[in-house]
Amino acid sequence: MPQRKTARLGLPNLGFGVGLRTQHLPDILSGGPRVDWFEIISENFMDHSGYSSQVVERLAEQVPIVMHGVSLSIGSTSPLNRDYLGKLKALAQQVRAVWISDHLCWTGLGSHNSHDLLPLPLNEESLRHVTQRVREVQDFLERPLVIENPSSYIQYQSSSMPEWEFLSRLAEATHCGLLLDVNNVYVSAHNHRFDPEHYIRALPHQQVVQIHLAGPTHCGEYLIDTHDAPVPARVWELYALAQQLTGGVSTLLEWDAQIPDYPGLLAELDKARQVLAGSMPTAPAPHTSMPGQTVLSTPIDFQLTPLSQDAHTIPEPV
Ligand SMILES: [Fe+2]
User: Fold this and answer.
1) 8 A C-beta contact, residue 120 and residue 154
2) I need a labelling partner for 240 at 20 to 30 A (CA). Which of 93, 211, 256, 292 fits?
3) Residues 200, 162: contact at Cβ < 8 Å?
4) Separation of 208 CA from ligand 1 center, angstroms?
5) pTM above 0.85, yes or no
């Protein structure tokens, strides 16, 4: 499969990366990154000058860093948080972030944080609202914002357009980038009974700058976006389609619970290289939840490391 070499929105194809997680730091510090780039959860490093920040600064000297946020709440009707945006911009300068992404979602109202990435009604009114907010954020950050499609479990009666149309029109109006989470498309397509291939084909591929891969959990009627398992076979098929249509964009493997050791994570990332080389990897169907098990979808809490815990869990450099 050909790999596009030219940048879009001025943003390069970084190759194959993983989400940086604290439990892998000893291996990474001793053995080197062994990936083309890292994605960090922005909120874990904002306004933070401790040891983890020093580690990321060191890693930024070795490979590109991309920032992925969970608190922008671009779909909320609460005012944009200028303090948060200021910290986001400062961190981007600190780690020389290649781009900054967040989700098409809202996370709370006022001071109440839901600790989840909640879907919003998709209609003309919300599109105008989000378009204006994306423009404001981009003006503030002085760079394109990259917006990710969320996984979802409900739809609103007030929605009047599919998510792919909403994202396409948002990208056209704001010139933002798109982060295509192929697993989220797979999860939402299953939950809402739409064709995931149609979704991927309908996006403006020239504005997709990154792809996310992850493994969900099957909970009977619903797929839940748990990031706790290998990428299932159907997601690899959709990934191949997305890479074919985009011409090749940065690939990022997310794994946030039941996290394997670093070699295990790298082995899963290798499957993406295998797909681009033209062969489908051996991959399981989504695993099934256990009876009585609590299954959480993209919970923000587990992506955010409390600073007090952070101080204890991040090792000294080798
Ligand atoms: Fe994602």
Assistant:
1) no
2) 256
3) no
4) 13
5) yes
